[in-house]
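Quick one, T. Sequence first:
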Amino acid sequence: IQGTVVTPPNLDSEEAVNEYKDTGATFQSTFINVVNTIIGAGILSIPSSIHGTGLIGSLLLLVMACLFSICGAFFLIVSAVYTKKDSYGDIGQTLYGTTVRNISIITLILYEVGVSTAYSVILFEQVLDLLSAWGGFNSATLWRNRWWITYLATLLFSVPLLCMKSLDSLRYTSFGAVLCIFLFVCISIYLGVTQLVKEPLHYNLFPSDPSQTAVSMTIFSSALCFHTNIPKMVRELKYPKATRFATKVHKMFRIGITAAISCTSLYYIVGAFAYFAFGNEIAGNLLTNFQHKGFWYLEIVKFAYALVVVFSNPVIAFPSVCVIDKVLFKDERNWRRRLAESLLWCTVIWFIATLVPQLDVVFSFTGATGGILLLYVLPSYFYIAIVKRVRKKANSAALSLLGPSWLYWAAHCLIVATLIEGCISIVTQIKKLTGSS
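Structure tokens:
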């Protein structure tokens, strides 16, 4: 797929490759933003997937998804450092031309519209429930007035955070989201241990339904997504000359691999212990189980869940809003444009989330298509082009970015494997939708 290809900068020297920066996002702040991007609000749906694929089966799938995610992340980090671009579209333009640029932009926006809408559906549900529980409002009255109540929540919580100047500016809200996530971890461990001591339930070790395995593969793969923010994070990352990291790729990859392994562990801990607590009665959303059991801390968990959504959604949507601005304008974003674009994005998402509150099937298709492309296919495709270019210049300092030579073929294998995975998941979802066996 070719178009007008942009010539990348000269990378013959080490300084040109690494692009040293004495200011910018730190290791810690970038790590927190990566963790927030990965976990987000989806952590409470992981126990259901672990129930469907079994304790051992889900562990194997999570480890495989983590390895795939790390590979895709490395390929994308190399692409961002090599091209010195901060978006999928610009990287695609530099390496392949306008066609890949347009495909990348459209895929990114559609994927993040789906994810952001899912987060908004969750937020609106928690807002209405908390107003009923803590504010004493009638549920029927809240439902009739949900349009303006949820839009007011959007204006108060989503717009101000999304119009921040840089992704690193969201590190404090990301830290708040991570604290709330640890609340879910602690509660899950407590409930699981209590049930195991009291009376262990029946637990599956391996998947019993192949179709559930295919769906869980896509869920686990999409659950470890932080790739959409990688180009922006690489550009904002601080990288001084006095550093222990050999290249900027090494520093960002260390952040990514540490966050991915940490989040994979948190996913499994929450999922496994929640499964220990509720067994075969585990629901698609862990809050449903809390509600059925009538736990006194249900509203506290709902409030924490709402905070996770509020703090995670801007981090998720930030790349798309920046890309839209870049398509429409050539100069740097000022605060008026940031505010207008954030307001427009949040209004569109609010309208979709309020109009169509049940989007399970849509999100499954989004993960199996846009998620697969953004996490694995496009990063591998970019990396292959870079390896071909760099190998033509034997003395290029960019050789230090590429890693072992076998990664070139691993990129090809990752494209094939994940495309097959996506196709299987799509077929499975169609069969479930049509009621086929």
